[in-house]
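TICKET #2291
ISSUE: user wants both folds in one file
ATTACHMENT 1:
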Amino acid sequence: MARRPVLGSVALAATLAVALHGLCQWAFVAPAPGRAGISQTGARVSGKPDAFAQPGSVLAAACGVASSAALVALASRSSRVTVRANPGSPSLIQVLEQKGLLSTVENLGLLSGAEKAGIKVSTVEELGLLKLAERLNLLSLAENVLTNGSTPFLVLAGAGILAAGSFLCATYPEGSFFQYFLTGALGAPALLLGGAALVILLVFGGTRRTRPIDVTEKEVSYGEGGFQSQEVLRSASLLETVEQKKVLSFLEENRLLSLAGSLVDRPLTLTENLKLLSTLESLGVLSQVESLAASKGGGALPGLGGLVLLGAALAALTLLPSYGVLVALLLALPGLAGVALGVGIGLIKPPVRGEAFSN
C-alpha cells in the first residue's frame, strides 16, 4: 500500500489555519477610533517601527517557515519525474573521483562513525529509502542538479529574489500578522538556497567529463516523406541506469544489504579500514565501469579475457600435474573476476531506444 503524505498535509493544514486566524484578526478586528490596537502598541514608541517587537510577529514568521517546510515535504512526495544526465557534463561518479570526495569520507571516518552511532548498512533498506529514492528519481535528479554548471548561479539568483521579498516584508511599516508570515516563508528558503548554492559551487565546481558516457539512440519521426529515423547522442550515467533498471528495488526486496550485514561484521568499518573507497577513487574503477557500460559491447572485453584465463587454468590443471593446481588457482581467480565484471557491466548497460531495430 502506498503511503500518503500525512505528516506534510497535517503540517500545512495547521500552519494555514493559524495564518487564516491571524489574517481574520488583522482584516476584521480593527481597533476602535482613538484607541491603539494590540498591533499598534509597542511598534511605534519613538515614531519608528520596531520590526519584530509586536506580539505574534515571531509566531507568524515561524508559521511561514513551517509552511515552506510543509510545501517542500508535499512536493517531495509528488509523482516521479524523468531526469536525464546533462549533455557534456561529467557524471556524479566522475565528480566524486575528481574532487576526492570518496577518500575524504574515508579519511574523516564517516562510515565507522555511522556504525558507532547505530546506523547499519541495512538501515536504508529497513526504512525503505532505496525504493523511495528510485521512485522519485532522487539519484539522477541530484546528479543533474549538482553537475550542471549553471545550478549554483540560478540558485543564488532565486535566493536573492526571495531574500529581497523577505526584506521588503520585514521592513514594511504595517506590522501585520501576514507581513511576518511572508517574512518567514520567504526568508527561510532564501537562507537555505544561498547556503546550498555556495556548497555546490565550492564542492562540485571546476570539474569536467573524463570518460565518455554517451549512447547513440534512434529517434523515429513521421513527416512528408514518411517515417524517418535519425541518430542522437544521449548521456547515460550509471546512477540513471541503476534507477531505470530497478536495481535499488531489487536490493531492497531481496534484503541483500541485510544479508551482507549478517555475513560481514561491521561492513562499513571494514570498507573504511581496507581503504576500498580511496583505492577505487585513485584507480578510477567506478568511472571506468560506467564508461564501459555506456559503450557498445563494453562488457565483452573483460568477460572474454576472464574466459581465456579460465581456459588456461583448466589447461594448466590438466597438463601440469606437479604444480598445476597452484598455476590454475592463480589463473582462475582473475578469470572469475573478469567474467563477473563482464556480466555485471552487461547487467547495468543503459537501455537505448531503437537499439533492437538497428542492424
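ATTACHMENT 2:
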Amino acid sequence: MIKVQKFQEQTSPAFANLTPMDLKAQSAMVMAKINRLPFEERAVLWCLHVQRETEIIFLADRTPRRWSMATDKDIIRKWCTGDGPGCRDIGDRHDVSFKTANRYEKEVVRMLECWMHKAYATLEIQHRAILQHLYYAERLTA
C-alpha cells in the first residue's frame, strides 16, 4: 500500500474496490502501527519493504561490525533486496575464508530475522481477533 500511495503503482485485486482516499486512510493506519514499534523492528520492516538506505545504515550500526560498516550494509542490502556481494566476495575483501564470511553473514541475518519476527508478532498480537475472524470466515466460504 505504501508504494501505491507514493509511486501510484497498481493495487492488488484485494484493494480493487477501495477509493484513493480509502487507500490513503489504510496506509496511514498501517504506518501508525509500524511507527509505534521499537526502532530496530521498525527499521527492519522499512528496510524489507521499502529498501531505503537510511534504514540499512541504521541497522548496520546495530550489527556486531566485525570488519566494516560497508560490509554490514552489503549483507543487510542482500538480505532485504536479494542483491549484493556473496560470501566469497566479502571473504576476498577482508582476506578471510568464505566460510568465515558465511558464518558472519548468517549471524547478521539471524539478528535481522529475529527483529523481523518480533515486529510481525507484535503487529499480529494487536490484531489477533480480526485475523482469526478473517481466517475462519475465509475457510467457511471456501
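RESOLUTION: both attachments delivered.
EXTRA DETAIL ON ATTACHMENT 2: The mean pLDDT is 83.
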